[in-house]
């Protein structure tokens, strides 16, 4: 069972930056593909970025070149560095483990990111 706690969100002006953190507890963290998701009001949750245990990271087109996902397996942590933020990035951000494209852990409380114009 994977337990996830997200933090680091906040209110920022357009063009600003935030770094989100995800603390994971559970077995085999270092072997899992991890991802960051977001859910904006009235919209479905979408997968934003993924990082495998080894190999290349992937991003949804809308964040490519602005967001960077990373992990520290020694600390069971996953990060999302978000630069050049836009109002459309406003959402609650969640992390989770994936198998294929499907999340497999229980959802945490998420962290709110609000970008003002």
Q: What would you say this structure looks like, in words?
A:
The chain has 117 residues and is an all-beta fold. The chain is 0% helix and 52% strand. It contains no helices and eleven strands. The strands form two sheets. Strands 2, 4, 5, 6, 9, 10 and 11 form a seven-stranded mixed β-sheet that branches. A four-stranded antiparallel β-sheet has the order 1-3-8-7, with no helix packed on it. A hairpin with a 6-residue loop joins strand 4 and strand 5. It is globular. The N and C termini lie far apart (39 Å). 30% of the residues are buried. The mean pLDDT is 95.
Shape: globular
Round the Cα radius of gyration to an integer and report it. 13 Å
What share of the residues lie within helices? under 10%
Note the total helix count.
0
Distance between the termini: 39 Å
Which regions have little confidence, pLDDT < 50, spanning 5+ residues?
none
Write the topology of this structure.
Layout: E1 3-7, E2 10-13, E3 18-25, E4 33-39, E5 46-51, E6 58-59, E7 67-72, E8 77-82, E9 91-99, E10 102-103, E11 111-116
Parallel strand pairs: 2-11
Antiparallel strand pairs: 1-3, 3-8, 4-5, 4-9, 5-6, 7-8, 9-10, 9-11
Summarize the structure.
By secondary structure, the protein is mostly beta strands. The protein has strands at 3-7, 10-13, 18-25, 33-39, 46-51, 58-59, 67-72, 77-82, 91-99, 102-103, 111-116. The protein contains no helices and eleven strands.
């Amino acid at each position: 069972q994977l337990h996830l706690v997200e933090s680091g969100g906040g209110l920022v002006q357009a063009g600003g930056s935030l770094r989100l953190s995800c603390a994971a507890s559970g077995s085999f963290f270092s072997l899992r593909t991890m991802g960051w998701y977001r859910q904006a009001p009235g919209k479905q949750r979408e997968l934003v970025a993924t990082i495998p245990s080894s190999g290349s990271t992937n991003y949804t087109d809308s964040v490519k070149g602005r967001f960077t996902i990373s992990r520290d397996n020694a600390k069971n942590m996953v990060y999302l560095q978000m630069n050049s933020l836009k109002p459309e990035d406003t959402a609650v951000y969640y992390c989770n483990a994936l198998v294929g494209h499907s999340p497999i852990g229980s959802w945490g409380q998420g962290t709110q990111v609000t970008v003002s114009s």
